[in-house]
Give the backbone structure.
Amino acid sequence: MLILYDIILWVSLPFILAYHLYRSISRERPAALPQRFGFIGTDVTEKLQGKRPIWVHSVSVGETTAVKPLLAALKKSYPQHPLVISNMTETGRSIAQKIKEVDVCIYFPFDFTFAVKHLLSEMNPVLVIIVETELWPNFLCSARSLAIPVVVVNGRISDRSFRSYLRFRIFFRKVLEYVDAFCMQSEVDASRIRSIGAASEKVSVTRNLKFDIPFTGSDAEEKRMTRARFSIPEKVFIFTAGSTHKGEDELVLSAFDSLRKSGASALMILVPRHPERAGEVAKIAEGFGFKPVLRSALSGHDGKLKEDEVLIVDTVGELLSLYAASDLVFVGGSLVPVGGHNPLEPSSVGVPVLFGPHMSNFREIAAMSIRYGAAREVLDFEGLKESMAELYHNKSECLRMGEKGAQLLSDEAGSTVLNMEIISRLLKGEL
């Protein structure tokens, strides 16, 4: 079946190359094809200085953000091993490059045997850590052939992925044999990985790393300074819609427009999940009578933002700072069937959270956020409009929801310690 998989990969190669070249041209970013074919270059090998690194693979923004506490723990416990982080996406790489513990950032190679084997041989990592169940067959097979241990951390299997894995269980059962340990988020995820074929003795429940995001809050002075950095007025109510997807921008802009027309003194920040959509979103904002201001052009903006303007963020890596400057946050990917994004990020800065009904990628976190009172689910546009208006007029409820978010993070933290115990045993050869 690996031979069949290789044939499919080679047949798909022209389409893979066309896709990456299109993304490179359309987003004005390098395609980085040498790295994607397993050639990291002398600049990377020089940074490693002949030392065996710990290689952490996180696909994109969410996984990279989630693994930050673990990266800090790894750097503290194993300073003799450089930390290499690989990503699949440009946005994930942009986040990784800003993490101080990371020594080297690379793009994850295409899963051709020659590419992954060459890269693994050249880097010779002491351990590979895969975040959230990225199971690339040739990569895992090559790591096993080179005696490089592999651990999955923060493992989860969504409903849709589970159905796909079960359909090809015969194939994935063999692939799972190449992984030395599975650190899963929940008992459900642990049960699912066993059903696909993972050996029970390799599977542990180590909870969700996303709960280990540090609670920083935001006192009045910090909030004032953050707002000043983004040209945001000090006193105005700030509503931020973060990580929105196509089909949501109209809904959040319409709900905010209703709030403004009711006489509210408020300003909106809109952060598309994919920055390249900023131009499209700006046109939608204009359709509602707002004047869009791009974050990338903010330095040339004349004075503070005005309430008839919408700040549209076309940069990467500033979302948490913008959440900290806000009074209320809507987490996108949830009013459209995308699966949602992490509601703990705004909670970590003490801000109340709204999200829609489509939170399948964060089902457990969303349920706990609601149960603690840190977040509210809005079922549709009307629900968003009503909750936005209610919380605008109820500052004490906003404060209470922010405090409940802090309590949730405090109560559920501890995943990093559990994952580090498994990692320590792997490095000692005890697993």
Notes: Residues 220-412 form a domain with the Rossmann fold fold (CATH 3.40.50.2000).
